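Narrative of activities, Objective 1.

The group set out to show that a structural description can be obtained from nothing but a protein's sequence at a throughput compatible with the screening campaign. Below is one input-output pair from the validation batch, recorded exactly as produced.
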Amino acid sequence: MIELLVMLFYGYVRAGVVFGVYFIGWGAARIDHEAKDMSLAVRLLLLPGSVALWPLLLQKLLRHRSSSPTDSNPV
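Output recorded for this entry:
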């Protein structure tokens, strides 16, 4: 039972690291346009949080991607 929990934890962390690298490189700028101009030091400070909270940030990225900019323009 303990081995299963450890394997699940490491799987969560591995997925978080992969997502975190993507998020600090490109994903944050898709959610917030000001994030495009962040320095490398600030991006590295975001990495631990994005690794830990990757399911929430992935959900936010997917929700932001699904809302197209033409939805807000009245016809």
